From TrEMBL:
GO molecular function: methylcrotonoyl-CoA carboxylase activity
Taxonomic classification: Eukaryota, Metazoa, Ecdysozoa, Arthropoda, Hexapoda
Stated name of the protein: Acetyl-coenzyme A carboxylase carboxyl transferase subunit beta domain-containing protein
PANTHER family: ACETYL, PROPIONYL, PYRUVATE, AND GLUTACONYL CARBOXYLASE-RELATED, METHYLCROTONOYL-COA CARBOXYLASE BETA CHAIN, MITOCHONDRIAL
BP GO annotations: L-leucine catabolic process
Length: 87
């Protein structure tokens, strides 16, 4: 049982690391390209849209991960999720 627990913890840690990496978006070059034009990143726009302090349940974070042999498409090129917007 301890062996299974250790293996599961290792897999969960790997998943968390991958999700964290994917959440950064298209990488430093893409981030620099957007911010140099004064644009907000997609997750920044979502944060502004949601009610203050409202959680956001992001879905499909790993869509497009390792889609191509030499590169990933973080989140399949889009962000989907559920959050609260009161208006």
């Amino acid at each position: 049982m301890q062996e299974n627990e250790a293996q599961m913890k290792s897999l969960v840690d790997e998943l968390k690391k991958t999700v964290s990496q994917v959440s950064k978006g298209g990488g430093v070059r893409a981030i620099d390209r957007h911010t140099s034009k004064g644009k907000l990143l997609a997750r920044e726009r979502i944060d502004l849209l949601l009610d203050a302090g409202s959680p956001f349940l992001e879905l499909s974070q790993l869509a497009g991960h390792h889609l191509y042999e030499d590169e990933s498409v973080p989140g399949g090129g889009l962000i989907t999720g559920v959050g609260r917007v009161a208006g």
